[in-house]
Automatic annotation (TrEMBL):
The keyword S-adenosyl-L-methionine does not apply. It comes from Ruminiclostridium cellobioparum subsp. termitidis CT1112. One of its GO terms (molecular function) is hydrolase activity, hydrolyzing O-glycosyl compounds. The active site is at 55 (proton acceptor), 230 (proton donor). It holds the Pfam family Glyco_hydro_43. This is Beta-xylosidase.
Length: 468
């Protein structure tokens, strides 16, 4: 147990100090309860809520948040269009309808696809540009198309092809992600393990490829499902002046997980926490890209598997990751998850271990953290479901993890710093340091309020914690 726990936390204790303020935490209110694995709603789209989501993207317009996604249906046949849902709180979702009733004819002829995949939308002026992909699993005879509308609720006008690929192409025309750079230029990232992830500049007037544009490779892995890469999404954080490329690794039916790299320019190069370039195929596949989310299970409660294909919502200074995940009780059921993104002091995104329920970062008291915690280390080399281990944070700054030598400190506001002892490490390097951000949250597994933390260690391994 000591060896396992030694890898859990990483923090620079010299930068940490105690905060003895006697503060209480402002927890989120109890969210509406949604019954999972509910067969009574599967035939009624208006009752799906967060059910039947795959490859979700999100955009806000006015007071509404809108999601669009790949059409899926538990126990049934998906239709040919693109589902639209909306929410005012990012928690409860209403059915709106679909973009298209079937796969557009030219996309169908090119790909023989029966459904549309992985849509994403962006607003230019008063017009929404909605991109989507048509393809079939296991082939790169693919097609990215465009629809436009004045409202996310339609009507939508078909605008035809944006880019397509064949079996001889070096790219795969799927998973479009339109994104503006810091100067207001429009780009689109797209692609998959057929050649990797590419980015290309777009024409804001037409929503299609800019004349004379060139494709740039920004991330890749070996061309196999076992080391796949797909689902790119780029977001700019002006605080750190960095672009962040989120991608999904591995098999969407087994070990899907989310990785990230960052760059100074939207066209890259994107590097992970350890400085590895996201196009480096000379390293082992799991050594490139900082893993920030994967399948997990807290205690003996039901968990989640295969989370991925995310988008990111930026609203003011708040960031949220929007993705699908499958319940481990029955992996045929895909649900929408939205989680708060917190940021490390040096500008790496840290994902909340719990789904969003209205929580906010805030200044906390050290005494709130004392007690038992369930901790999950997001092992970069194990992308199957990871289970939590228990530790205890003691009021005297010690950690009960079986070693008798691990310690923790609390830094002002909401930062916890841990120094974990590992007797198997070489002399002089027996300790692993980890820094995490703590936040009051809703415990969806135990249906109560709790504290959570999300952090990263000095070797780029992320960690999640939830207080018992």
């Amino acid at each position: 147990m000591a060896v396992i726990l030694a890898g859990l936390f990483i923090f620079n204790l010299t930068a940490c100090g105690d905060n003895e303020d006697n503060l209480s935490a402002a927890y989120p209110e109890e969210p509406p309860k949604e019954t999972l694995y509910d067969h009574s709603v599967t035939s009624d789209e208006t009752k799906w809520g967060s059910l039947n989501f795959h490859d979700p993207s999100i955009i806000k317009d006015g007071e509404w948040y809108y999601t669009i996604s790949t059409d899926v249906k538990v126990g049934g046949t998906p239709k040919g269009g693109i589902p639209i849902r909306k929410s005012k709180d990012l928690i409860s979702w209403e059915w709106v309808g679909r973009v298209f009733s079937k796969v557009p004819e030219d996309a169908r002829k090119w790909t023989r696809a029966r459904t549309l995949w992985a849509p994403d939308a962006i607003k230019t002026g008063d017009t929404f540009y909605l991109y989507y992909a048509a393809s079939r699993f296991g082939t790169n005879q693919s097609f990215i198309g465009l629809a436009t509308g004045k409202s996310m609720e339609g009507p939508w006008e078909y605008k035809g092809e944006v880019i397509k690929s064949t079996s001889s192409s070096i790219w795969n025309a799927i998973d479009p992600n339109p994104v503006y750079d810091a100067e207001g230029n429009l780009y689109m990232s797209f692609g998959s393990f057929f050649g990797g992830i590419f980015i290309v500049e777009m024409d804001t007037t037409t929503g299609k490829l800019k004349e004379g544009c060139k494709l740039s490779l920004i991330a890749t892995r070996s061309n196999s499902v076992a080391s796949a890469i797909e689902g790119p999404y780029i977001v700019y954080n002006p605080e750190y002046k960095k672009y962040y490329l989120f991608v999904s690794y591995d098999s969407l039916s087994k070990d899907y997980n989310v990785r990230v790299g960052r760059a100074d320019k939207i066209t890259g190069p994107y590097v992970d926490f350890n400085g590895n370039v996201m196009t480096d195929t000379g390293l082992p596949p799991n050594d490139v890209g900082t893993k920030i989310m994967g399948g997990y299970k807290f205690g003996r409660k039901d968990g989640w598997v295969m989370p991925g294909h995310n988008s990111v919502l930026k609203e003011g200074n708040d960031y949220f990751i929007v993705h699908h995940a499958r319940g481990d009780r029955d992996t045929n059921w895909p649900y929408l998850h939205i989680r708060k993104i917190l940021w490390s002091d040096d500008g790496w995104p840290l994902i909340s271990p719990e789904r969003y329920a209205g929580e906010k970062e805030q200044k906390l008291s050290k005494k709130l953290l004392v007690g038992d915690w369930e901790v999950i280390v997001l092992d970069k080399d194990n992308n199957l479901q990871l289970s939590s281990k228990k530790i205890t944070l003691k009021s005297n700054g010690k950690i009960d993890d079986g070693t008798g030598k691990s310690t923790w400190e609390f830094r002002a506001d909401n930062t916890i710093c841990m120094k974990l002892y590992d007797p198997d490490r070489k002399p002089g390097a027996e300790y692993i340091e980890q820094t995490s951000k703590v936040m009051p949250s809703w415990d969806w597994e135990n249906w109560r309020t709790t504290l959570v933390y999300t952090g990263i260690d000095n070797s780029g391994i992320c960690v999640w914690g939830k207080k018992d």
